[in-house]
Structures are given as C-alpha cells and as structure tokens.
Amino acid sequence: MSLTDAPTLPLGGPTLPQERRLVTAIPGPRSQALLARKAQAVSAGVGHTVPIEAVAAGGGVVVDADGNSLIDLGSGIAVTTVGNAHPKVVEAVQAQVAQFTHTCFMVSPYESYVAVAEALNRLTPGDHEKRTALFNSGAEAVENAVKIARKHTGRPAVVAFDHAYHGRTNLTMALTAKAMPYKSGFGPFAGEVYRAPLSYPFRDGLDGPAAARRAISVIEKQVGAAGLAAVIIEPIQGEGGFIVPADGFLPELVRWCRENGVVFIADEVQTGFARTGAMFASELFGIVPDLVTTAKGLAGGMPLAAVTGRSEIMDASHLGGLGGTYGGNPVACAAALAAIDVFENEGLIPRARAVGDILVSRLTALQQQDARIGDVRGRGAMVAVEFVLPDTGEPDAALAAAVAKACIADGVIVLTCGTYGNVIRFLPPLAIPDELLSEGLEVVARALATS
Ligand SMILES: *Cc1c(COP(=O)(O)O)cnc(C)c1O
Question: Which conformational region is residue 36 in: left (phi greater than 0), alpha (psi within -120 to 50 degrees), or beta?
C-alpha cells in the first residue's frame, strides 16, 4: 500500500462520533488484508473475536480501517471501563512518557507506584492495614498472590473452583478449569492445585449455605485444611459464564478460611473497579478477602496488575522475593492514577448500575419472548445471557456463537464465555451513551430473532 491511498486515521477518544456505522461488510477489504498478513505472521494460537483492523476507539465505539464504527459491548474484555482513550488517561500517559518510561521500581523507585499502592490499599474492601505489589497482567498477579499465601502459611495447597478462570501461565492454567482452549496439550501443570464445586444457582439449584457446605466438605475430605495455603475464587466468575453465586456462599467460605488459617484470595481481575456497581464485587457479598488480585479495569487500557491485602500476609515475603522488571511501569501507573480518579470522581459506580439496569431490562424482556434464553444474570455493567435448548435446559453453544457472529456482522462487538460456550456477556465501557447501548441491544435482539 502506498502512502497516498492510506486513509486518514480518525482520532480516538471521546471526540470520535458515538455511532454505529457500517460502510462495508465486516470484514471490509482493508481488514481482510490485515487478517491475511496476521495469518502469515502471527502464531495460529492467537485468535481474534472481531475480524477487523482496529484503527481508533473512544467512549463506546471501535472504528476499523474500512471506516466502520462498531458499538463496543466488550471493553476489550472488561478493560476500558472508563471508556476507550479516556482524556484523563491519555493526558497522564503522554505526560509520563515524556518524563521517563522506565527505571525499574526495584532499582530506582518513583512516586506513582507508591500512589497506586496507597489508592488500592484505600479502595479494596476492609479497613485493616494493607500493602500492595504491582505486576503486569492478571495471571502474574494471581501467581504472586499464591506465592505470598504459601510463604505466609508455610503450606503448599491451593483450592480453585469449577468454571474458574485465573489465566494462562503454568500455575494459572492449573487453577483455570476449562481444558479447551486454555489448557489442552499445554501440561504438565503446577502441582498442589485442587478443585471444589461452585455455587451456580441456575444449574445446581442450591442455596448459598448448602453450596458452601458442599464445597467445604470436598476441601476438608480431599485436601485438608492443614496443608492448604489459599482458596482462590472470582466473586462473580468471568470467563466461566458470569456466574453469580447464591447469597451466603462466599461469606461461609470466608468464615471457614478464617477458622482454618487459610488465605482467602478474591480474584477481582475482571470484576474490579466499578464494573459490578461496586468498586469491588466482594462488597456486594459482604466479604472482606485477605488478598485481592486486580488488573483489567485498573489502568484504563494500559497493562498493570496488583495484589493487595493484609499487611501481615503481604509482608511475609523475604526482601527481593517479589517483583519483576516491568511490574508497576511508570506509564501504566500514571494511567492507573488517572483511571482511579475517574472511578472515584466521575460517578462510575452509579453509572455501572444504570448501564446494568438498561442491560437487564432489555435482556429480561427478550427472555420473556424467547425460551432459548435460560438465564439473565450479573451485577452492574457485568451482565450475561445463558442460552439453552428450551426442552431440556442443555447448554446451546451453537446459538450463542450464531448470535455473537450476527451481532458482529451488524456492527456490535459482543463476547461469548462459559464452560459450555453458551453464554454471551455484556461488558460495555461505562462511557457508552445510553442511546448507543440501547441500539446495540436492538441489534442483539435482531440477531437472536434470525438465529
Ligand atoms: C482475565 C483474567 C485473568 C488473567 O488476566 P491476564 O491479564 O489476561 O493475565 C485472571 N483472572 C480473571 C478473573 C480474569 O478475568
């Protein structure tokens, strides 16, 4: 391609017109050309959900190289909660990148890392004394939370749950439940990882205390508290299907952990930072975790992750035991401080609830007309529909895939999830205008009607 026929790129950020606009089929010719290069250059293991070449994004839309503007109901997997290219994030990143890009915090510390730690210590649940360590990705945060819990307790074992997703590194693959696509052929996996049954009200029909008793019984019989360092759980499961546990399940698990000296880790990588209508989903269930892992929404699209928790646990590591070359990179920290300012001062928690109300009212109306929607669930702006075969209640993954595909072809980005692949999840940026969200949901309704 010569320079002269390159399109003028639209600028991202909130000035980008907040509209759905299709000027070619998806993918258009420029996007197709990029995907052809991708196939020749990028590992076949790295997939993509939306077959476009993204060139700009802002607020609630993603614009492709062919000039199509897609409504974003996925936020790059729950990352751009503050809106894509939020002006405060952009300004903070630009200022920091011109100042210095890296010193390595373990070599020459800088203020923004400490300020992010202070903010996380203040914002995460519980008013106990806390400490934080910063990393690059959710998986790395989870790995470090487990390291910290092991060092603190002197015990080896870790319990994760059915339908769990904690990442793709070796230890986090072991913690993740689903074989395809996350684990198949990638073992052997890290040892001393055990799995307990979840509370999944739509499928198990158990109340919270009963589901907790079932899980605790498995843990006591098959693992034993004496060798157990930590229990790790997503307060609302993400990849596993936006599964909201029944009331009482999480508090009972926390109580059992306290009683047995087991570290309770809440993996809030997907649920954190206003997404669920609370700063952290743990608050919705009235629990105070010992350690909290965060990442996705934390830094407005820049890679940053954290482990935050009780000082006596976080300080158990010997000096130099925690860290990493890039962990708490200054540009990512500047972005996080700007995003945290937005979360706290631009009303994002009530905004998540308002977005959730729009999602739930439209989706439950759809459910009333269509028996293939078995369940509508979630909290705040983290909402999903589970598709079933109406006669049996069996998961209908083919329908979820067909609806998602039709949405994307019609200019709306949606993501699927779930152990059975039969869930479509909605994670819009909170900057999305109401009309655009409603238009996106009408596209979903049309896609369902024709699938
Ligand atoms: C995405 C996710 C992870 C992994 O985060 P990465 O940044 O992709 O490594 C871990 N836990 C949960 C709950 C997640 O949703």
Answer: alpha
